[in-house]
Amino acid sequence: MNRNEAPDFFRVPPFPGARPASLMGPHNLDGVSGDDAHRLIAMLAERRVGGSFWGARPALPTRPYTLVRAQTYQRFGGQETAAPLLFWQSDPDAATREGHTIYGECDPWHLVNGATEVIAEGSDELVLVAAIAGVPVHCVSEGCYSQLAADPASLPELFKRLFLDTRGYADPFTRQPITLAELIELLTFWKELIDSNRQIEAAVGFAFWKQPTVAPLLWNGSTEVRFINHAATEPDGAVAIWKSRTPTADLAALEESGVRLLEVEDGFIRSAGLGADCVPPLSIIVDRSGIYFDPTQPSDLESLLHTGNFDAGVLERARHLREIIVASGISKYEQATAHLKRRVPRAHLLVPGQVEDDRSVQSGGGDVRTNLELLKRVRRTSPDAYILYKPHPDVEAGHRIGAVPEAQVLQFADEIVRDLPISALIDLCDEVHVNTSLAGFEALLRGKAVTTHGVPFYAGWGLTRDLGAVPARRAARRSLDELVAATLMLYPRYLDPHTGLPCPPEILVKRLADGQSQGGNHFLVAIRRLQGRLKRAMAKAMRR
pTM for this structure? Predict the structure, then answer.
């Protein structure tokens, strides 16, 4: 390699299942200056990205040490060092002569933490990491970074020459040109996701058809996600758990063991298809303190809303995201647009049904436990309204509990709507009444009045009329864009169906709006839909 050419210091982490992606793009010299180099170096020192930042973080000596690439030791000549040697060996089968050795792919920023000096080849990116972190370096050979050993102050000039003067960068999702600062922001986004997963030892309760899309969102940077069906042994670290799919005995054992449980559920922008039809989610949430739909205890989402402190940039993104979602007709299970006409010259109310044994109903519905009870309450509160009732799609598909005979529905509702998209129905109506349904949140996005009869996550922040027992701790008042920022940007995790990479919400929304989403295992979908039709037929026969 020419000493003036650097290997790719800015790389996409090898997320499981992701397609190969490059961060390189067309070069543009416009506006590049030495000041940019100083600013970007400071940004890298703060964010600690570049190189294999996703690698393992092994335990390090408590005393200061000299960090040595093991393969350079002989070329170093065994010279005396001021601190004990810590060898970093990429090949676990190779031997070193003395000192402590760590093996495999590691986070170089972590390794230089306690180092008083770094010894490596002049072309080793470890030299660049050390120089950015302010650690002295000794190079045993010439290379693109070797001048930093003799002249640490030349770092800005070297950085500009290697990474600004001759290179351009591209967004891996859109392939549009981006600045290096924007690229560092993306690497930081991935780093924060990976760091949040480093304590996860195992994942319990995940259906096999969900695992490929969930794995990148739970990956800890160095080992594959260990999906297990039963918690036979007590894990050493935290466990990501899908509680509704975990056997009761296993869940009880894990809770009694005291192991930290991180609850996982579908996100709010899920995919184009039903979970009950085995269509894998493109968004999940991982909650460390509770779960968003259970108002009996705080959750990470509630904490975000309680704390606030949303900066102007986040709120602007939230506004833009909300506008895209509304314009494209995206909801949790579908992406569709339709323009409906009002039925009569009366106020139109939409009542979305739910899965009655769903955990959100069981934990947040209070004494409203059935769809029929919800309809009765809505009619009592709005005796003159034209009420449209939309059964839940999983119930309609025959997979879940919550079906109400038409005759009973029509005692309290004026119309049952089945095949029309929820977004179009929200647009049609003046108000939406919910138990705990996400449709109430979607209605808020579209500027509609919302009445909650249970306690969904969006109740109690000053945006809804709340008839349920909202916890007193929800005392903060939040704007719609603050609610969107917490709910759709800061709380969930998203996977791009095109690249297989974790992505910001804007990317997934754009993919869904463009019709780019995965359909899941077609055989499983067909089987589940057949099962649903049989269940509906049997239920209908039993009602006769």
Answer: 0.89
